[in-house]
Design the sequence.
């Protein structure tokens, strides 16, 4: 199973500042296939990027007008199981 998420990070001096990010988790998954997860992660990234109220709050939290976002997936590990 796969979990979808999105991250938005500040851009400082033309580089992504990985120490200055905001993360969003998905409330609909997990997904059986990686493709389903990737589609949902991109949907999340796009929705957040195109919703002024959300993206402007992200800019305030990160204290940066210049930000970049990415949708991504990771494998869900059942309890008691190691990757």
Sequence:
């Amino acid at each position: 199973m796969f979990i979808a998420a999105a991250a938005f990070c500040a851009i400082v001096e033309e580089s992504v500042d990985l120490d200055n990010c905001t993360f969003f988790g998905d409330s609909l998954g997990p997904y059986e296939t990686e493709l389903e997860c990737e589609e949902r992660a991109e949907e999340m990234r796009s929705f957040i990027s195109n919703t002024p109220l959300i993206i402007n709050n992200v800019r305030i939290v990160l204290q940066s007008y210049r930000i970049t976002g990415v949708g991504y997936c990771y494998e869900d590990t059942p309890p008691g199981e190691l990757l």
User: Anything to note?
Assistant: Residues 10 and 67 are 4 Å apart (CA to CA). Residues 34-49 form the longest helix (16 residues).
